[in-house]
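job 3f2a | input accepted
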Amino acid sequence: MAIINFWGDVVPFSCDGIKADRSILNSIEENYNAINLECPIIEPHFDKISKAGPHLSCSESEADRFFRISDKWIVNTANNHFSDYGEKGIFKSHQFLSNRKIIHFGSGENIEIARSPKFVALKNNLKVGFLPANEVQFGIAQKFKFGVAGYDETIFSTIKKIRNECDRLIISFHAAVESWPLPSPWINKLYKTFIDVGVDIVWGHHSHVPQPAEYYNNGIIIHGYGNSYANPRNWKKSAQRLSGFASVNIDEMVLLEENWYSLAIENKDLKLAKPEKGLENLDLNKVLENYELYQGVWQEISIKLYESTFSKYLKKNFETAIRERMLRKEKQYDFSLLYHLFSCESHRQAIQTFFGLQSGEITDYRSQESAELYNRISNWMA
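job 3f2a | predicted structure (382 res):
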């Protein structure tokens, strides 16, 4: 029986080791572990790329300390931070992983290489294909440029091409509206479409808080487990420190269990502590099955995102960018932030939903029930 633990985002940092229940450690040691490595393995004094938002990295010693907890790793690198230190960061990270015989995929010297599937032979000669994709943000590979695998519609022809080359096909997809436990309707629909055209498991990440896992037709959709391994001091909300991983029997396509924990620092160790709360009280799987309620809650979230975040960015940066351009004093950061808002499909979907509601172009599904659930989610996130 081949079991893969599907984690969320991983950012190795300076700590002595991991403390956790024996059952969690046994699962990590005995099974394959699929992780989203959310940073390059490079010292931070190297040159950073120009982008909006933080630059992440970890040292080789920090990465070694993390990877020593198991010898069965499958590493996705298609995300919005793996290119933070440019070509050198990607190259040195690949070198580190290859030297330690750690399976990895999702980035490379051009878009063709970055998008290449990775085939892995598990127990019982089960051949599993991993196909990477990252919604368009910073660091996407191009025809003649190092970077990560960006998502576009060509992924469907790739699925058709490689479906018969493996026993199980898994898409690793880095996309989400950050810090909300409910995936957007666009993401949920896209993931179901992947299953419909032949994918067995959709493994999502990027949300920074846990999101639900669900069965769909003959497949499994894992929307994400948030920050599975990261410095908890960098995350203020308890929901951002709640995480875990899903253990899936790949042979029989069964989600065996979800291993929940809360990140904490104990002395100099990262402790995977018993969580005070999980996702069960939100009943999000039932929300995904109720079209009107799902749309209503998403609309509530979109309004909150626009009013609290996007409106300030759009107003400030549009005005600044135009004014500075007229004075020939363009600020690259202003343009980068605007690019980020419109290139990232999750951001664009939220902005589109807000303006669709305000213009009356889309149906307003908000109700007392959706407002109450939105408030429950907001309180849960605090």
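job 3f2a | The domain at 3-282 is CATH 3.60.21 (Purple Acid Phosphatase; chain A, domain 2).
job 3f2a | closed
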